[in-house]
């Protein structure tokens, strides 16, 4: 069964990036903009951004045993946050096995990422 990971991202206040981007917040360093940038970075496969193929997360953890995938994802997220979004500081990462919904029991894992924003 293949491993499928989705990301939930929140800051220490529980703020999430939301489903839609507020383009009015671009360039003002608001918590909303920073969370949107973190969300985009973490949910982008590496190699898919033209002109900078290093942006995004290396998805080679897919189909790896879960303990190995956990470590690979955590290391990748921490590294990419430091490199591409220094306005957000990594605080914690946790894992939830999806037991409800369409993907229940099919290897769907939810990565819960918490960052702090100054």
Topology:
Layout: E1 4-11, H1 31-42, H2 66-84, E2 89-97, E3 108-116
Parallel strand pairs: 1-3
Antiparallel strand pairs: 2-3
Question: How would you sum up this structure, described in words?
Answer:
- A three-stranded mixed sheet has the order 1-3-2, covered by helices on one side.
- By secondary structure, it is α+β, with helices and mostly antiparallel strands.
- The model has no long low-confidence stretch (mean pLDDT 77).
- The protein has a single domain, classed as Nuclear Transport Factor 2, Chain: A, CATH 3.10.450.
- It is built from two helices and three strands, in the order E-H-H-E-E.
- It has helices at 31-42, 66-84, and strands at 4-11, 89-97, 108-116.
- The longest helix has 19 residues, at 66-84.
- The chain is 26% helix and 22% strand.
- The protein is globular, with a radius of gyration of 14 Å.
Question: Summarize this, please?
Answer:
This protein has 118 residues and is of the alpha+beta class. Helix content is 26%, strand content 22%.
List keywords for this structure.
118 residues; alpha+beta; Nuclear Transport Factor 2, Chain: A; three-stranded mixed beta sheet; 2 helices; globular
For the largest beta-sheet, the strand count, sense and barrel status come to:
3 strands, mixed
- What is the overall silhouette? globular
Strand proportion, as a percent range, falls in 15-25%
- CATH topology term: Nuclear Transport Factor 2, Chain: A
